[in-house]
Design goal:
By secondary structure, the chain is mostly helical. It has one domain. The strands form 2 sheets. Strands 1-4 form a two-stranded antiparallel sheet. A two-stranded antiparallel ribbon has the order 2-3.
């Protein structure tokens, strides 16, 4: 079997594995009493990660340069990064529900790369002069890994908003947290005709949640959903805290490479501009969490918006506009 055939098997196989993994995670969430479904989901993510790593390695061997020169390769590298960050986040959170939101995104990226891109965009081609640099591996790989981490962190924030929908939840305690509660307190504000119930369930970790519902009568979040919300909030914070320094390093490396290739550290290219916007969005999120002490829905909304910003930075500017970063993609 030659390398081209092997690559075809690996990219389609990665998509198929991720599709089955997504179904396993969704079935595990729908039927939590079946314990082995979630474990199979984790196994599927690990196999997909190794399959995409093998695909990128095969292209590296075939082309003779680090496989990040076109859209096809970068999409699979991004999907590989998301699966790697997913396994890290799942290990930290001890929650299999992480895969219910990360697996569909990784599967969609792999499907777009393997099934939607025209064949001529999937072929390795000789590098343009500006890409013949050691900075290709340093800058592009770090940027894509940072995108992967920021996307997973943003997805956890979106999941947090879904779990706490309709409830004004504010988590108070350590920003790092441990994924559960020691003294979880919640208050529900009801209409004047209804009494105000209070409950103080006790858990085994260190954080406090205060829940304030709208004026209309609403049911309280169950202790299990409160614990899940705390877990999602903490994982989102940790993963974004990992991706933000990588984004910073990637932008600095890109500026150095730009000066080497084009004689200018910063030229306000659309890609550079949106990289700066992405940096500012997540810098604002971390500033709100660390300095201002924001927790709960407000920073989650800011982090969730970062998911769209990352996609615009990564792919949108290459579709909608031309610039110094457009070669090897759509233009």
């Amino acid at each position: 079997m030659d390398l081209v055939t092997l690559q075809g098997w690996l990219d389609n196989g990665s998509f198929a594995i991720l599709f089955l993994t997504m179904l396993l995670y969704w079935c595990g969430a729908a039927f939590p009493t079946i314990p082995y479904l979630a474990g199979l989901g984790t196994l599927g993510m690990a196999i997909a990660n190794l399959s995409m790593a093998a695909l990128l390695t095969a292209r590296w061997v075939d082309a003779g340069y680090f496989p990040l020169s076109n859209l096809y390769e970068s999409l699979f590298f991004l999907a590989w990064g998301i699966t790697a960050v997913h396994l890290f986040a799942e290990h930290m959170s001890r929650s299999r529900l992480v895969g219910t939101v990360t697996a569909p995104v990784a599967m969609g990226i792999a499907a777009f790369a393997a099934l939607s891109l025209p064949s001529q965009m999937q072929v390795s081609e000789p590098l343009v002069p500006a890409l013949k640099s050691n900075w290709l591996m340093m800058h592009v790989s770090v940027m894509l890994i940072s995108y992967s981490a920021l996307m997973v962190g943003a997805l956890m924030a979106i999941a947090f908003l879904v779990v706490t929908r309709g409830q004004a939840v504010e988590l108070r305690g350590s920003s790092v947290g441990t994924g559960a509660y020691r003294d979880a307190k919640f208050r529900i504000r009801r209409s004047s005709s209804s009494p105000e119930p209070e409950a103080t369930p006790a858990y085994s970790a260190g954080s406090t949640a205060v829940l304030e519902a709208p004026v209309q009568a609403q049911a309280a979040l169950s202790p299990q959903r409160l614990s899940l919300a705390d877990t999602l909030d903490n994982i989102s914070y940790r993963i974004i805290g990992l991706g933000f320094p990588l984004l910073t390093i990637g932008i600095i490396a890109g500026a150095v490479w730009a000066n080497e290739a084009w004689g200018s550290y910063w030229s306000w290219d659309p890609k550079e501009t949106w990289a700066l916007i992405t940096w500012l969005v997540f810098a604002a999120y971390l500033h709100a969490r660390i300095t201002r002490g924001w927790q709960g829905r407000r920073p989650a909304i800011l982090a969730a918006s970062g998911f769209l910003v990352v996609w615009i930075c990564y792919l949108g500017v290459n579709i909608l506009g031309k610039g110094l970063h457009s070669y090897g993609w759509f233009f």
